[in-house]
Design goal:
The protein has about 475 residues and is mostly helical. The chain folds into 2 domains: about 260 residues, ABC transporter involved in vitamin B12 uptake, BtuC (Orthogonal Bundle), CATH 1.10.3470; about 120 residues, no CATH class. Helix content is about 70%, strand content about 0%. The protein contains 19 helices and 4 strands. The strands form 2 sheets. A two-stranded antiparallel ribbon has the order 1-4. A hairpin with a 2-residue loop joins β2 and β3. α14 runs antiparallel to α18. The N terminus is likely disordered.
């Protein structure tokens, strides 16, 4: 007996949408069975062990990752939930950082206690975000992005060149020299004046923020933001207060960025204009897009990936393993099954042997060089050409051919994709072993960028984002 008012197709579609596919499906189904509270508790417990396993330099990297996670969560409110392309987000981060530096150092001769400075800074940054949202009543899409980007650039110019207000002799921003001697956070007589203490402060704030955002996401406001993101006109026709929601999204995102800025300044014991350049904004967006816009866990996962990947790639051995693991992930993403991946791997090795035999037959042993002094390089030395004095040729042509091959794999279908995949993977390995592995400083940026491109091509909704079907 059919139920009145129930669309069977919609119900079945929602049921199908809840089923994960791919090789990560079993793990994601298992994770979904764990309540959100327990997931967060396990995450915090695992991360809390990190400072005891690494040096102080590693703790500093962990602090940077946690700062990035907080910023990604704030940006997720504006971009991921409300669908507003805000390129001025970095200015809120800088505003909070500079405000904290001014009121907790000798810059203007005042030293506010933390319990006074933080609420005032967060509230002021939220008001600034609400003010910036006013043009969003008329501007959308690219026009809103251009306007907010202008705001971000103006902020950097102001703190860099206009350190004094008209008619005031006191130096507020320090110009290009910034502000130094900033005091640490201090709550209830306890100072967060070491890397370990600041790490746990950030971890606690991240946990509290995740809990708060989870409640907002499941509230009427969260649902209204998603409706605004999907179709502003439809949401407005359903009597949703669109302008008020836009202002609220900007204010909440700005407040989170301002709060994060205060901790950043306290950890760095100073603040400088170069801390808020466009590259920092790109990094925040990369974390959010990689993790999955609209997903709280995705924003955190993206921050961890973006924050740790460049540091891992500083080590040639680790970079090599990450490179080959990335190739296996690429094969798995394209071919979908492990049996096909094994077959393709065998095909790449066989192709390598054929290329090596042909090269030795034509040019002889004189073209061979010495393999890199890493375990994985020695493992592939038997079937990958390690060239002697011809690395320049590889750097000029091999990398271009490998990039063209990747594009060919992305756009081709069926057996053409497999036929393109095998020589492309071999070319990538050839370029890596002959050129990129020898230049870690350049390689880590190229490899990280390549991983992002491949990831977005194979999974455009991010690591933990939700697939969206758009009808155009």
């Amino acid at each position: 007996m059919s139920q009145i008012g129930v669309d069977r197709w919609v119900a079945e579609s929602e049921e199908r949408g809840g089923q994960y596919t791919g090789w990560t499906a079993p793990a994601r189904r298992l994770i979904d069975r764990v309540p959100h509270g327990w997931r967060l508790a396990i995450f915090v417990a695992v991360v809390a062990v990190y400072p005891h396993l690494v040096s102080q330099g590693g703790v500093r990297i962990g602090i940077t990752v946690l700062l990035l996670a907080l910023l990604a969560l704030g940006l997720n409110v504006v971009v991921g939930w409300a669908g507003l392309l805000d390129l001025g987000y970095i200015a809120f981060y800088g505003f909070g950082a500079y405000f904290y530096g001014i009121v907790t150092s000798d810059q203007i001769g005042v030293h506010w206690p933390t319990w006074v400075a933080i609420p005032v800074i967060v509230a002021a940054t939220a008001v600034l975000g609400a003010l910036l949202s006013l043009p969003s009543r008329r501007l959308v899409g690219d026009y809103l992005a251009i306007m907010t980007l202008f705001f971000a650039q103006v902020f950097v110019e102001i703190v860099n060149n206009y350190e004094r207000l008209p008619g005031v002799e006191t130096d507020l921003t320090g110009g290009p020299n910034g502000i130094t001697g900033v005091g640490p956070w201090s709550l209830f007589g306890f100072e967060f004046n070491t890397f370990n203490r600041n790490f746990y402060l950030l971890l606690a704030l991240l946990g509290l923020l995740i809990v708060g955002l989870r409640h907002i996401d499941e509230s009427r406001t969260g649902r209204a933001w998603r409706a605004l993101r999907e179709d502003t006109l439809a949401a407005e026709h359903m009597t949703t207060p669109v302008n008020r929601l836009k202002m609220l999204a900007f204010a909440v995102g700005a407040a989170i960025a301002g709060l994060t800025g205060t901790i950043f300044t306290a950890v760095q014991v100073g603040v400088f204009p170069n801390n808020f350049l466009l590259t920092v904004l790109i990094t925040i967006y990369a974390a959010l897009i990689l993790g999955g816009m609209g997903s709280i866990s995705g924003a955190v996962a993206g921050a961890i990936a973006v924050g740790f990947a460049p540091e891992i790639l500083r080590n040639p051995e680790a970079a090599g393993w990450l490179f080959y693991i990335g190739l296996v992930a690429l094969l798995l993403g394209v071919l979908k099954k492990w049996t096909f991946v094994a077959t393709a791997t065998a095909g790449v090795i066989a192709f390598g042997f054929l290329v090596r035999i042909a090269a030795l037959t034509i040019w002889g042993d004189s073209i061979l060089g010495v393999a890199n002094n890493t375990l994985i390089s020695r493992l592939v030395d038997g079937w990958v050409l390690i060239l002697g004095g011809t690395q320049d040729i590889v750097s000029k042509f091999g990398f271009v051919l490998a990039v063209m091959g990747v594009l060919g794999v992305i756009v081709s279908k069926g057996w053409w994709r497999v036929a393109t995949l095998i020589p492309t993977v071999y070319l990538a390995i050839l370029v890596w072993e002959n050129k990129l592995a020898l230049q870690p400083s350049v390689t880590r940026q190229l490899l990280f960028g390549g991983l992002l491109v491949v990831m977005m091509a194979l999974r455009p909704h991010g690591l933990l984002g939700t697939r969206r079907v758009e009808i155009t």
